[in-house]
Amino acid sequence: MFGRKKKAADEDLDQFEDLRDDVEAQAEADEFEVDEFDVDERPEGGPYDRDELDDPEGAAQSRLDLGSVQVPLPEGGQIQVEMAQDGTPQAVHLVTEHGRVTIAAYAAPKSPGQWREVAGDLAESLRADQAEISVQTGPWGRELHAVTPNADLRFIGVDGPRWMIRCVVAGPVGSAGLEAPLTAIAREILAGTVVNRGAEPYPVRTPLPVVLPQMLAEQLIAAQQQQMQAQQQAAQAQQTAEVQEAAVVEAAAAAEAAAAAAQDHTLPPEERPGGSGSAMQQLRR
């Protein structure tokens, strides 16, 4: 009887060990598959979808309205507009004392997950440029931190309903760390951003159009005109200087020729360059 009990106990132990191995293997598989950077829902506080707001017009008035995105301006911040080759606004940067923050929205499918794919592509591209990449956890999940010899970069993305928003943080070395002031400013701006996706069909990953406010567009046009005038004035001044320089050179050459002619006229014939006196004088010698 004792032998049968021992045998039964051994069989139970073997089954327990097999079950334990299965559980551990499944746990390891689950741990491998779980993405600790994924966040299923946007944290309370934004970024917001315009259609979700009770007062979208009021929200737009308290933010810089760029058409597809409406962003709060940081205290003491300045606006820098980047233009495309065709003259349309390509990006709007919010410049602070610590660095600059750029927020842009892109078309996305209804199901979330585009930021994860975009982050992977960004990391691959940055590594190809010899940047040091680290994946960190922020309020919205996955963030990319890139360190280059001359600058720090941080990329923060959020998936929304048919849109994805990307925030790029750029500053001097050491300015875009996980707890850096510039990073805190960027997260605050992103949390207060409103996305106006619109009903237009766009291919996935297409940047949603940037539209400048009328006042900002007028200021930009005035600045461009002033720049063109300054360039034209500089070109005219350079042309005038070149003409004056040529005139001075010509006058100097004329004066030198005149001096040479005057000297040739005052010298005795035998001392004049290229001659030893008149023909009669030479016959008398």
Automatic annotation (TrEMBL):
Signal peptide: none annotated. Residues 220-247 form a coiled coil. It comes from the Bacteria. InterPro entries: DUF3710 (IPR022183). Keywords: Coiled coil. Pfam families: DUF3710 (PF12502). Residues 1-58, 258-285 are annotated as: Disordered. Residues 11-39 have a biased composition (Acidic residues). This is DUF3710 domain-containing protein.
